[in-house]
Amino acid sequence: CSLTAPWRSFAFAATQTNDGREMVVLDTAGYGGLTITRSISIVNDGAGVASVQVPSGAAITINAPSNAVIHLRGLTLEGANTASDGIVFNTGSSLTVLNTMIRHFVGNGIYIQPSGVAMAFNILGVNSLDNGGRGIWVAPFNGGSAHGIVDRVTASGNYYGIVVDSVSAGLPNTVTVS
User: DSSP 3-state helix, strand, coil percentages of the chain (rounded to 5)?
Assistant: First the structure.
């Protein structure tokens, strides 16, 4: 895209962005939901509100290869009390969510659910507010494990705040909350 004709959809921009590259938000807008299928960074460092709102399903679903690294920074995810989850991290190597607002989902703000693999995550400076499920839910299964940091996070008004569940994983999880 160009500065005079930017893409207005995260889903389309992600298909045009090479593996391991960065999408930069240039202006306030509603960019719509997306499924991430490769290493990518979506960055908003103060261009205004980079909103992701969907009527149903998850705002951002991550189904990336096992070596993929995903960074999300400066986003506002709005569920409008109809969409299921803010971020669902199904597959990939690591996820970093920084300075992001996630609110009003009927399910979870952030749902990390590795299956049969170890995944890493950093959730820093995030507000996960007024979600019907958990603000943050780490729930590995089928021999998966999750290792990460939750720092400077507000999880308020959710049914549960921050939940790390390893009952069905069978492997230890290492999660530091500060």
Answer: 5, 50, 50
The continuous run of DSSP H or E covering 97 comes out as strand 94-98
Q: Is 46 exposed, middle or buried (0-12, 13-18, 19+ CB in 10 A)?
A: exposed
Q: How far apart are CA 27 and CA 47, in angstroms?
A: 5
Determine if the pTM surpasses 0.90: yes
Nearest CA to 75 out of 59, 55, 51, 91 is that of 51
Q: Convert the pLDDT of each residue in 86-143 to its tens digit.
A: 999 999 999 999 999 999 999 999 999 988 888 999 999 999 999 999 999 999 888 8
Nearest Cα residue to 86 out of 132, 40, 125: 132
What is the CB neighbour count within 10 angstroms for residue 55?
9
